[in-house]
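Researcher: Let's try something more involved. This one mixes different molecule types, so please make sure each is placed in the same coordinate frame as the others.
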Amino acid sequence: MKDIARQSMSIKVESMDLLNGQIKMEAHASATYLAMASWCEQNGFFTSAKFFYKQSEEERGHMMKIFEFLVDTGGNPVSPEVTNINHDYSSIVDVFENTLEHEVAVTKSIHNIVKKARELGDLATERFLDWFVLEQVEEENTIRDILDMIEVTGTEGVGLQMIDNQVANWIE
Amino acid sequence: MNVIVQTSYYTLYQSAKERSFYVDFGQKMVRMSLCQLLALRYKLMSIPIENHFDGDLNKHGFEVLLLCNKEHLLVLNTYEILDLKQFVEQSFMALGLSVEAETVTI
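Model: All components are placed in one shared frame. Result:
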């Protein structure tokens, strides 16, 4: 009997479900960074706003990468519903601390999919996610560096203005 | 056509000649591609079955399913939905595209 199913699709549905979950997470991250950009614009942190616009674009890029992978493997990518975007932050430090928390959550989720793909023997998904694993190391490192810079600069006096100016160093 | 999976209400057939699948829904036989089976799976996963046991959330205990680019419309009761969930899960396992053990039992 011909294996029509395997000829039509090259990953397991369990991997597909997890990747669809990751699509949603990346879309949520993109929308969250856009909300952060909005907060920065409204509170006079214009360089940080530029940084978050860029981050938002990057997250959407990640989402599309996974979306296209699901298309390539014959899966069923689902356009995500994005809700519960927080627009309230108490300070620029709060914004960057939330960013780091978000990135850590994304990293954990990616690692979880890699482990599951390995369990399923889904080599294509596992190899595809290699790029994301390394990308998350870079993303987390960037935010940690910014938080370190904030710590060193301090938020007193012209500190906040200096912090915002320094964020330019992390906009490629 | 080869029978792939059969449950109380549904049967999945594979037609190697047409490179597609057929699902016998009892009321009608529907030709489906793998993409359409995946879409059916997604729709079933999105159904909050627990609402069927809450008179306020789902008064009548029915679900309306549109399949194959709105070509087919099915109205299914709770038993049929539960069986369809099990049927789809077993189908993907039988097709070698899922490795998870059954989680739905009727």
